[in-house]
Design a protein that fits this description.
9 helices, about 35% helix
């Protein structure tokens, strides 16, 4: 009865039923990166009824994080982001099983650790981490949802397990000399909320079986003019990750 009441607004949707809610409750997500995008996405995953969320970040809360990373307050300064996020998200929905890893992930560190997860949700803030996550996902055949924001620009893309579709590295290998982060380029605080909440929406849809319009595509947001652009990602036959020649 309590669960019916908690998710009652979901059940009013014609596209949503008890099977969708049950599917979401049974899923396990690995969310990597608890900066602006990750700290905006995580509360929606937990409050929507996700069954299990593992939070990963190697950083501590700093003063410059607070304008855009709304999971944290002044009292959290100097503490590990992953542990703080786990504690606060448990208050959002006690029904979600939470755990945290205070570490920087690589493809090697994730070796055989992705087996239990249904989705890897990348909210990291650098190109190398995203590429490492894609490599691990491809090696272990796990779908990857990735979201990022910097300056006045945001992007979201989704890469399901596919033998014929592109992977993140098909697109990102061309960006190796163009890496940007908010540390040196800046970011407007509300932008991370826009990208994080929309990426969380896509994650909930994917996990509940509602599909995704994002598969194999890149959604780009221009925050200055509040405009979206949708770009089809083409599979790179020479991709270092998913090329058939490997």
């Amino acid at each position: 009865m309590a669960e019916q009441l908690r998710y009652s607004r979901h059940f009013l949707l014609s596209q949503w039923d008890e099977d969708c809610q049950q599917q979401l409750e049974e899923k396990k997500v690995l969310l990597v990166g608890l900066g602006g995008v990750g700290s905006a996405a995580a509360p929606y995953l937990v409050s929507s009824g996700l069954g299990h969320l593992t939070l990963v970040d190697f950083d501590q809360v700093s003063l410059s994080n607070l304008p855009r990373q709304l999971l944290y307050q002044d009292a959290d300064l100097g503490l590990a982001k992953a542990a703080v996020a786990e504690r606060k998200l448990q208050l959002v929905n006690p029904g979600c099983m939470l755990q945290s890893w205070h570490e920087q992930v690589t493809a090697d560190s994730l070796n055989h650790r992705l087996a239990d997860f249904d989705l890897v949700f990348d909210c990291t803030d650098n190109l190398n981490s995203r590429q490492q996550l894609q490599l691990a996902c491809y090696q272990q055949q796990k779908p990857l949802l990735t979201a990022a924001a910097v300056r006045l620009e945001g992007q979201i893309s989704y890469f399901p397990v596919s033998a014929t579709g592109p992977c993140y590295c098909c697109y990102s290998s061309a960006l190796a000399q163009q890496e940007f982060s908010c540390l040196d380029q800046g970011v407007l605080s509300p932008l991370v909320g826009v990208i994080g909440s929309l990426a969380a929406l896509e994650a909930v849809k994917i996990l509940a079986g509602l599909g995704s319009e994002l598969a194999g595509q890149l959604w780009c947001f221009d925050a200055l003019f509040s405009q979206w652009q949708q770009v089809q990602i083409i599979k790179n036959p020479h991709c270092p990750v998913c090329s058939a020649a490997l």
